[in-house]
Amino acid sequence: MSVQYYTVVCSLPRMNRYFQIQETPISRLQLEKRLKLLPTDKFTLAFTVESLVWTSWFSPHQSMSDLRGAFQNLIDTESVFIRDILIWFFDLRSIIAALRIRNETKEPPENPQEYWITRWNHKLLRNWGDPDFGLKSIYPWLPKVAADVAKKDTVAVEEFLLSYIWKYLSILEMGHYFDFEAIIIYLLRWNIIHYWSQFNKDNALTYLNELSTLLLSKQLSHDVILNDKGSMS
């Protein structure tokens, strides 16, 4: 056990059992001050993981190629814990992205690597017409979420995702108390509480509409290019 990890964990306020609260247990400024007690490389790694699994999803701004490069770099160089958490989040993110694309365009993207990063790539494409992409045995909730996406019930999708991620992190937390993994989990759970504290129906619609627009813009641009080529031939 590193003394630095122990010091950081002990300095962090206890996390609430549930994320549906009005404010985070610690401000962002104070959280970052605490994390600066970490070794420099671990401080950087913590926020790199946060950026990949949370910020890039719920506040999308990075290109998929940039995300893929950062994702692959951590997969190749970091611990099993970091690899597993990245794979879990990107699998979930990719399935939700595929649901939204299917709901809007009906057809699978010609270049899926531009839209998602997941080990389920072949499953998504091969079972594109199935409500659960043939993944119901792994994600039994998929048919319900697919129906909510089809109905454009963005609030239901948003609340499900937050609950599902929170439960995953809560389970993952068991066995990690005063180590770097515990700090990563705390940081990600902090983001869920922060997001929920600002959560309302209008915000949900805004965030998910922005995400849908981002996902679809490439597909629409690709279709325009194909149409232009067809008209010139």
Automatic annotation (TrEMBL):
It comes from the Bacteria. InterPro entries: DUF2764. Pfam families: DUF2764. This is Protein of uncharacterized function (DUF2764). The lineage of its organism: Bacteria, Pseudomonadati, Pseudomonadota, Gammaproteobacteria, Legionellales.
